[in-house]
Amino acid sequence: MAIKSVEEERVLEAEGVVISDLPRSDAPIVSENYEEILGDPNKYPSSVKFIMVNEVCERFSFYGLRAILALYLTRFMGFTEDKSTVVVHAFTMAAYATPLLGGWISDTYLGKYRTILYVSFIYCLGSIALATTAIPGVTGYDSAGNPHWWGILIGLSLIALGTGGIKPVVSTFLGDQFASNQGHLLTTIFHIFYFCINLGSVFSTILTPYIRSKVSYAVAFAMPAGLLLIATLIFFLGRKLYKIQKPTGSILWTSFHIILIGAWAKTKQVSMKIQYFFFHCLRPGLNDRTHTTIPNSHWLDAARGLYPKHTVDDVRSVVSVLVVFIPLPFFWSIFDQHSSRWVFQAERMNRHIFGGYEVEPDQMPALNPFLVLLLVPIFDRGIYKAFDKCRFPLTPLKRMSVGMFIASLSFVYAGFLQLALDRSEEPLSIVWQLPQYLILTIGEIMISITGLEFAYTQSPKTMKSLVMATWLLTVSIGNLLVVVIAEIGGMAMWLSFFFFAGLMFVSFIVFVFIAVMYTYKSETPAPKDDEEEESLVGEKNQ
Fold first, then answer.
1. For the purposes of burial, counting CB atoms within 10 Å of the CB of 26, is it exposed (0-12), middle (13-18) or buried (19 or more)?
2. Is there a contact between 523 and 457 (Cβ–Cβ < 8 Å)?
3. What are the start-end ranges of the E strands in 310-367?
4. Which of 436, 250, 264, 271 has its CA nearest to residue 341?
5. What is the pLDDT confidence band of residue 271, given thresholds at 50, 70 and 90?
6. Which pLDDT band, with edges at 50, 70 and 90, does 166 fall under?
7. 136 in helix, strand or coil?
8. Residue 345 pLDDT > 90, yes or no?
9. What sign does the CA torsion over 267, 272, 277, 281 have?
10. What percent of the chain has pLDDT over 70?
11. CA atoms lying within 13 Å on the CB side of residue 186
């Protein structure tokens, strides 16, 4: 599938691919002894296939187990739908929060290869533990006669740690395998990488529920676990072929420290202004020259005495991008419910299609990755270019604004569908769920994929990994919101759909306001080392 370069970059980032970390023509690939290793400019490195197998199997495993998790919790574990929703979204929340930890460990201590290998073992243990919990009687029974929850807690916790640890590392490690004279091969390899991930998602979301219904939950969970074990072994067998870079340190702490310094300085500045205001209210005749002049500078500039000017400026750019991220958790709070609440809705519908074939309710989420594969080229090459030709180009923030509104409509539709289900004497056809998946996927394409393009182009080169980790964190926060609301409980399903649609609409209004206030930036190269030192000396001497 051919996709425009910038479209490919933002879609790949959604799977944890950090394009900024990939080698470029002027960035040689180094091994552990830091000597450049050149390869055949027309041939893929032999190590690539080991990494690709590992990633494809990991994604197949993650999407497969998540597809059947909601029904496993209600049908096998005896959870209520609200409690099952809490567990599913708490798991997703953890899976998208741990990439911060995985990236930091890789950059600071272990390096990419050892991080992937060690975390893969944790991932395998979690998958085996989860499959074991699906064997009747293994974890014991609670007072209500249902299987005990301790086993699934251990399994899902280890899996969340494993997938989060791998997500920000494996794609950049893949890029590390290409030498400086092989940069032109990266586009093709990531076309394949992206396509395989989505194709694996489609098949895992169809196949795993089928095994669950025809065989057992234990076998359905054991299949992804077995794939992970094989993938980890294959990844290990390629160890002598990998080009490995030593850890160079993480920008995460530096960025956090700069923000901390700036926030503390801003607090003191505001305190000074308050004191000055009240002091002059009491003594209006006081000469203005007696108060301290507060310079009109950005609040992060207070860190310039400790960090290079360009580093502080980069953090300023990142903060501007992160402000745009503020409404995004509300989108993820509705998007990820297609693997929980929408599955429960499908369970109550007539799922017989094509003359009698029964669709499993947890197979319906496969529509999302399938529609993504189908619609991305249509939007990229058709709809967006049509607007360009009409001299009304849809900038990234315009696309995202439209996407926020469209995404809210998917839950309005789901709410009315649920009302019809509740009032109908006979179950409605599962075909009626197709429009809400289509609407949600259109919203996803305009928000998620476009948002990653925006974040990629508007963040400085040195901070792209940090911005990507924060993007994944918005997914985590969105799922946390679902957990909190589901824990409160008490809402009928149709009402919860309308409630989240309302939240999404409010976030759409907020996002439009933020988008109007935002000023697009063009990337500027960081200063050279001698400029950096000169800047530091000058600032310290002031």
1. exposed
2. yes
3. 352-353, 357-358
4. 436
5. low
6. confident
7. coil
8. yes
9. positive
10. 80
11. 27
